[in-house]
Write a structure and sequence with these properties.
The complex is a heterodimer of chains A (250) and B (221). With 250 residues, chain A is mostly helical. Chain A has helices at residues 2-24, 27-31, 36-40, 42-74, 79-93, 97-112, 118-143, 147-155, 160-190, 202-213, 216-249. With 221 residues, chain B is mainly alpha-helical. Chain B has helices at residues 5-10, 12-45, 49-64, 67-76, 78-82, 88-113, 117-125, 130-161, 172-183, 186-219. The chains are: A mainly alpha (250), B mainly alpha (221). At the A-B interface, helix 1, helix 5, helix 6, helix 9 and helix 10 of A face helix 3, helix 4, helix 5, helix 8 and helix 9 of B.
Chain lengths: 250, 221
């Protein structure tokens, strides 16, 4: 009884919402939508998507590399080194990526005198922010390794390099896979922010095409779908990888 | 290079006003996002049927597309589709509300699902009314459990407001780049807003981390 009532309510609300939206929609425009513009510019859009993916990969790989080094540094016994790592991580995590990008692109050259191209600034910005986020995750992963492993490594007097590469990092990395992939997806989304500097990734390219063809609805709706599909595949793919790793463990 | 303090002092009121705009836009989007999030969360908790599918689609879609794309879509497509004029501030609020709604729905859901099932079953067995179960048994511990994630999201939302500078909303990042272009003191203004953002966001993220740690200690896992 309850279920039928709630289903009826849901249908009424849904129909009401659809009715209101349909009333306000500009049907003339909606019927004149012409998605062939997306197909017409497919090569440019695909190139933009490739750059987006390359930037994501760059942020993920370089960020993970730098993040791992910083995380190891954060475990050091030398306190000033720990403070520097903490300060770096907090500064990059607690300011918006957009502000970091325009700071690197417009403000930094005034101090250093070195001009960077938009792409260089974008890569520097997103990689530095990625490394700060990755540091936190790698640190959490390292701290999740049982104390006994550390003690075993110390009591066997293993050198630091072997202790890290053979004892601590492998189990740490395994527990880190889900957050790492989530982070990679969020940097995939973050690459769209690089459009503020006109790096020719998918978002910038779309903006440019839209300015030429005056078809924003078709273009922006299509790239929203493209971003959604790629992001969704990435997150679903992770679940598969995780499942596979868990199975191998047993 | 000399750090031009006098420029900063001269345009300080403008920056502070923009700081206020950032806070107001985040607050409005957060409130609308909470309402949307609660609706989507209830829909997804249903576990089946049309409401479940609709909420899941809403959550997945707005969590996966980049915020910039969403903002541009609302800004350049929504006025055309509805043939109405929407100010850029309103566009920003709409986009950020949709974004917050999707994220908050998942946060709320995780909080509700973290409430031990036995308590809800016990309440059902005592024939306590449904509304009462929600109000007295599910919501209080759920809020306690989701607070760290909620505040963490708040920091994300504050950071996301900076993206509205792309559609010329007069918030901090936009005002700073305009002032930078006008006075050619990019370094001063951009550094100033970086500091302002940090001062605004850092306390929240520290609080979120602390309370998360406390929660882990208390629940013991």
């Amino acid at each position: 009884m309850n279920q039928i009532a709630s289903r009826a309510w849901f249908s009424i609300v849904l129909l009401g919402v659809i009715g209101i939206v349909a009333y306000f929609l500009n049907w003339e425009l909606l019927l004149s939508l012409d998605f062939s513009v997306v197909w017409e510019y497919r090569v440019v859009l695909l190139k933009g998507l490739m750059l987006t993916l390359a930037l994501t990969a760059c942020a993920a790989v370089l960020g993970l590399f730098a993040g791992t080094i910083l995380a190891i540094a954060s475990q050091s016994g030398f306190a000033p080194l720990r403070w520097i790592v903490t300060a770096f991580v907090e500064i990059w995590r607690n300011t918006p990526l957009l502000v970091q990008l325009i700071w690197i692109h417009f403000a930094l050259p005034i101090v250093t005198g070195i001009n960077t191209t938009a792409l260089e600034s974008g890569v520097i910005g997103i990689t530095l922010q990625a490394s700060a986020y990755f540091t936190e995750i790698v640190r959490a992963g390292i701290e999740s390794v049982p104390k006994g492993q550390w003690e075993a490594a110390y009591s066997l007097a293993l050198p630091a390099r072997i202790r890290w590469t053979r004892i601590i990092l492998p189990p740490a990395l395994r527990t880190m896979i889900p957050p790492l992939v989530n982070l990679t997806i969020s940097f995939f989304k973050g690459t769209a922010i690089l459009s503020i500097l006109h790096v020719s990734e998918l978002m910038t390219v779309t903006n440019r095409i839209s300015n030429v063809t005056f078809k924003p609805v078709e273009l922006f709706s299509s790239i929203a779908v493209i971003y959604f599909v790629v992001g969704y595949l990435m997150s679903k793919g992770t679940l598969r990888v995780e499942y596979f790793l868990q199975k191998r463990e047993r | 290079m000399r750090f031009e303090w006098d420029q900063l002092i001269r345009y300080g009121p403008d920056l502070l006003h923009a700081f206020g705009v950032t806070i107001v836009i985040s607050a409005i989007s957060l409130v609308i996002g909470i309402v949307l999030g609660m609706i989507a969360c209830l829909g997804k908790l249903n576990g089946q049927g049309g409401a479940y599918r609709l909420s899941t689609a809403f959550i997945d879609f707005f969590r996966t597309i980049p915020e910039v794309v969403l903002i541009f879509w609302v800004y350049s497509c929504l006025p055309l589709l509805l043939s109405v004029r929407i100010s850029s501030e309103a566009c920003g609020v709409i986009a950020l509300s949709l974004f917050s709604g999707a994220y908050l729905a998942e946060i709320f859901r995780a909080g509700v699902l973290a409430v031990p099932r036995g308590q809800v079953d016990a309440a059902h067995a005592l024939a306590i009314q449904r509304l009462h179960i929600w109000r007295k048994i599910i919501i209080p511990p759920a809020i306690r459990r989701m607070m760290p994630a909620f505040v963490n999201f708040l920091t994300e939302l504050l950071k996301a407001t900076s993206l509205l500078s792309a559609i010329a909303v007069a918030e901090m990042a936009y005002v700073a780049s305009i002032l930078g272009a006008k006075t050619l003191s990019y370094f001063e203004f951009l550094s100033a807003i970086a500091v302002l953002y940090f001062v605004l966001i850092f306390p929240f993220s520290v609080w979120a981390r602390r309370s998360e740690k406390k929660l882990l200690e208390r629940t013991g896992h």
